[in-house]
Amino acid sequence: MISSLPLLPPFLPLLIGSIAAILLRGHLRSVIMLLAPIWGALQLAAVEPGLYWAFEFMGYQLEPVRVDKLSLMFGYLFHLAAFIGVVYALHLKDTVQHVSALSYAASAVGAVFAGDLLTLFVFWELLAFTSVFLIWARRTDRAYSAGMRYILIKVLSGVLLLIGAIILINETGSAKFSEIGLGHEGVLNVGAWLIFLAFGIKCAFPFAHTWLTDSYPEATPTGTVFLASFTTKVAVYALARGFPGTELLVWIGVTMACFPIFYAVIENDLRRVLAYSMINQIGFMVVGIGIGTSLALNGAVAHAFNDVIFKGLLMMTMGAVLHMTGRINGSELGGLYKSMPKTTILCIVGAASISAFPLFSGFVSKSMIMSAAIEQGYDYIWLALLFAAAGVFHHAGIKIPYFAFFAHDSGIRTTEPPKNMLIAMTIAAALCVIIGTFPAQTVYALLPWDVVYQPYDLTHVLTQLQLLFFSALAFVWLNKKSMYPPELPSTNLDTDWLYRKLAPSFVVPAYYAITESMAKMESMAKSGIKRLIGNSYDQTKERPKGYFAQLWPTETMVLWVALLLACILLFYYL
Amino acid sequence: MSKEQNKPDFFDKKENVDKIIKVFYVICALLVVADFIVHRHIYHDWENIPAFYAVYGFIGCVVLVLIAKLMRKVLMREEDYYDK
Predict the structure, then answer these.
(1) Which residue range is the domain that position A329 belongs to?
(2) Do A324 and A445 sit in the same domain of this protein?
(3) Chain centroid to CA A329
(4) Which residues of B touch A470 (CB under 8 A)?
(5) 20 to 30 Å CA-CA from A317: which of A9, A422, A429, A443?
(6) Could you tell me the sign of the dihedral formed by the alpha carbons of B15, B17, B23, B24, in that order?
(7) Using DSSP, how many helices (H) and how many strands (E) does chain A show?
(8) Which chain A residue has the Cα nearest residue B67?
(9) What is the pLDDT of residues A387-432, one digit of tens each?
């Protein structure tokens, strides 16, 4: 049946879904929105690897759709994430969010199937412009300004990508998006670095990460679920395609894996804790891409796949808490297991998955990256990743469920979230367990590179359990000794302080100084001109002071003409 | 709010929590004991240290929390810091 349908560009079904969301209402809209990702995924199952709709543009070959194993894996992932997200958001009547979410998912699909740099650029920018409405849809002042910062940084990333792409196309004569690498000569290297930076900003590299922790927690409860699924994973895909085996990425990745966990421990907004833990998980993927062996790259994309599902699940549970209680700060929550027992269990499944407990999805992908690191002799990197793995359990695995659902009873009594939210979370939780238990039949079957890996052996399971249980023991011990930092209503400074406080404290006075001096110059110039006019114009007699500038009666003119004619006559006779 | 919802729940009773924590301690102890019984593969010299993962996980997390507490002294501001 599927093969009889005309083949469409992979992003089109989701885009059609988003257009339907504009035009339709009620149950019909819900049905179409649910069918769009299913239709898109079935299309992918029918398509053969290769290039489609290639055409010439200004003398360059453009390949808007390239299907291979790597793009297919992300394609399936994004359709799955879109489906879960749509189910989760089904109760909403807000058209803006539905349209934005589906067109955002469509842009992500378009980006991973883009075969050339220009198509990639188009979808890269569309990702930013479609997603920002999910932040603004919260309709608060904080969300508005966070959205503005988000879009500014995203546009910067797009501009860098465009300049880099133009340089690359100019130098190599080909627009194809394939392995780029960093060790080039001259101008070509500048182009490669610009593209690297553009990818890095979207991937939340250290110092460029604050757009993520700033904006995602300000988005709507359902919007954050979509946001957490696409942008950064497109960036991970782009790095895996363009810069595999770039050693610098190992060091960047390990930094990303380690520093956010400190922030996550002291952060109060539980969705911001998850945003920091997202950077931590992406760090693992970036390390895998940097190592660049088949095992490491497989680990990176497998972890991206699993992360979308378990991080989505955690974001959904916290979204449900926010939706039902209107609160998300750890200091105001607690004891919710009494009124939201199902959500609590689903959250614990997500927490177990992100912490990489055996039989949960994180375990089967994170261990690939760890094994690759130790295989390639990155000893200290491996040690740091192990620390990050223990840390992630500490903040995402324990802190999130503990402070939201247990801890001291906050007195909040509510009910379980709407059915559609519960169904979406249940789907994600089931996937976490299925992938974790049967990796070979699920996520491993989609892996782009050929390598055999067996995550489940006695050593692996035992060591991982030791690591996790003793991390938990540290939590219990610190709590018993009252040494665990309490949740406090607070803001923690991060590098966004540079452009939210420091830069304004320079730029705002500078702006006023400049506008004031411009106004001063203007008034000085005006008074100068006035003085000039005043010098040559007699205000009392209302006529210019200069002799020749005065007004003359017509008779004078006639007299002078007559005189002139008389002179000419005289000369004529002489 | 009905009275039913306010009655002490499973986790409100201290003896229940204590029981769970005791089970947890036993599991931790068993995991360390297993380390000496099971012959685990060694990929790196560091792993030869007995119960390496347990020790590393525990120390790592304590250090993590203590450093994070110190970070609060430098980085923590009031909640509406950026809104002003």
Answers:
(1) 244-491
(2) yes
(3) 23
(4) 28, 31, 53-55, 57-58, 61
(5) A443
(6) negative
(7) 21, 7
(8) A262
(9) 999 999 988 889 999 999 988 888 888 999 999 999 999 999 999 9
